[in-house]
Amino acid sequence: MVEEQHITILCLASYFKGNTFLEACKRQGCHVILLTKEKLADEPWSWDAIDERFLMPDLGLRSDVIYAVSYLARSRKIDRIIPLDDFDVETAAALREHLRVPGMGDTTARYFRDKLAMRFQAREKGILVPDFCPVLNYDDLSHFLEHVPPPWVLKPRSQAGAMGIRKLYSKDELWSRLDELGDQQSFFVLEKFIPGDIFHVDSIVSEREVVFSEVHKYKQPPLTVSHEGGVFISRTMPRESVEVQQLQSLNKELHEALGMVRGVTHAEFIQGNEDGRFYFLETAARVGGANIAELIEAASGINMWSEWASIEFANIRDQRYQVPEHRRDYAGIIICLARQEFPDLSHYDDSEIVWRMVKKNHAGLVVASKDQSRIETLMENYSHRFMNDFLAVAPPLEEAPD
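Above: the chain sequence. Below: its structure as tokens.
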């Protein structure tokens, strides 16, 4: 067990997020080090919670990060390394391996970042996944194309969300895209496209046990919103429904199969329109993006960022983590890219609104209620209003911005 006065947490942040985590660490009396990118230097970080801040041009250059953190470790004993963004998960794992710091190592991190690795592992453990094929051996690819009818989805193995994903309808279209990718094509996986409803299950895992999870359903698949434009909506599912029970059980199987020990996760599943079965799509060892943390907190009172810090400190102190008492209400989130630089949402005045997005060229709200049908009604109403009042459409991102 680490002595209280010597607890030091190093947080990696390729994007501006995680202030709540930093604040929770500081409340625990921790020495907080933030390593982030130079371009994020002027973001409104929670400076009162940060003891030391270091800047680098690019946290994606793993060898440079290892050199830099190893230099810091000469005069600081680092007890835990936390990736605040999905893009930092593998770097954090490599640092833990190099410095011999407790936590998720390289192999397990692969299961939570590499879409090919997580599919192989899930399938090996008996979890249903869409038919897929690595973009490696061309004979295997040709066999896949002959036996799995289009459309297919070509996905980057280590991007986040819908970035870089292409939906393809013919062999010629696929081979043409692979020619464009050149030497980068092995960093992709080809998968059968399954039409259906997509759900996300956000969890707290403590000592290999899923101790808290919430099930939400996207109104439209994130791929559709990203590529065709539209409004992003997710809302809490009826808690006693068969679908929720099935997904919570499947989610537990998944994280046992992938070897998650402790932390927070965001997993996505699709329920196929043709067979009604749930297929695993992807998971991540982080708090869900697109302000899903605000959605979960509105429904339950559980703040995923704060609880992530609590899990880490319980482990450091050799204590048992306890999930706080929480609500079982319902919530919905709606977000869209906005035509206006600073959209005016003042005419959205329903009493159920508990959070308003403040972000340039974005409009967003979270609503909460004890009545799930009220959430559905509000989300349906707001979806039409947001399209008329705010919606702008931008080309989909092929990769994460610098």
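The first strand starts at residue 8 and ends at 13.
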